[in-house]
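Table S7 (text form). Paired inputs.
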Amino acid sequence: MLTALALAMLLCPLASALPALAQPKVNIEQNFADSLTAMPKEELGVSGGFYVPAYSSVAMSQGKLRVDFSVTLSVHNASETQPLVIKRIAYFDTAGKQVESYLKAPVALKPLATVSIFIPTDDVRGGTGANFIVDWAATGEITEPVVEALMVGGVANAHYSFMSQGRPTRTVGKK
């Protein structure tokens, strides 16, 4: 028994040192089954997208200190009556390279329901300029979804949290 305890104590620091890539894959369909509904049979005539800035790391103290943050992306269906189809949730790093894709296929979110993605503090693959792209659709007129990222982290006895609102993606310029 003591040998097993000693072995566990020795291996525990190794487990926490595993790379961020070893994080378990998010399964929205399984984790949020109560928030989802059947895909609409009607044509998806309305669509949109959001760009959501997220910060898995932030430079502080004149750039001499890096503070890592956990990130929670939440996608809220703000409609009281219509399902919202989420077509894509993708996470990108500072260089614009896709780090992760969170949907195998589109899912339909019940009215007023929410799904979220959690990125732990030790997953710093996104860096200081991380972001999400969320694409959505609906069968007809619908209240625009609410998409936000919450970052939480700290250093020593100081803890920080802040939110980032998703911004609708639209083409800007001459047609």
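Next pair, protein 2 of 2.
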Amino acid sequence: MRAVVGRLRGEREVWVATAHPEHGPHQVPLWFVWHEEAVWMCTSAASATVRNLRAEPRVRLSLPDTADVVLVSGTAACFPAEEVPPGAAEAFAGKFGWDPRAEEGAYVYLRVAPVTVRAWRGEPELRGRTVMRDGAWLV
């Protein structure tokens, strides 16, 4: 668990997989910050990711290293930039040196509170790879 949380704090990008009932699957990398036990991302309000999550909020996130896998499943909540909790927006801006709230275009912050997290490093760790279930870290 500690190694997974360390990765969530340290990584910069996460693959975001969404699906829309009419448009099908969509996957895109986004910057993220781990803040208050949730993954926070930000993207254009007109993006397919936002469109998909408004229609179907279930989401799968994956860190980019396939030799050190972390998969996060959860439900996304969308926050227009003017409604995002200040702490989350400041954590995002602090990590990346970019504050979408100051941009002219419309941006949406996405909050994903993990429900299930699976992590493993190669075949020897395939058993016991679930480190969070139903939103509770497993010890």
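The two ends are 7 Å apart (CA to CA).
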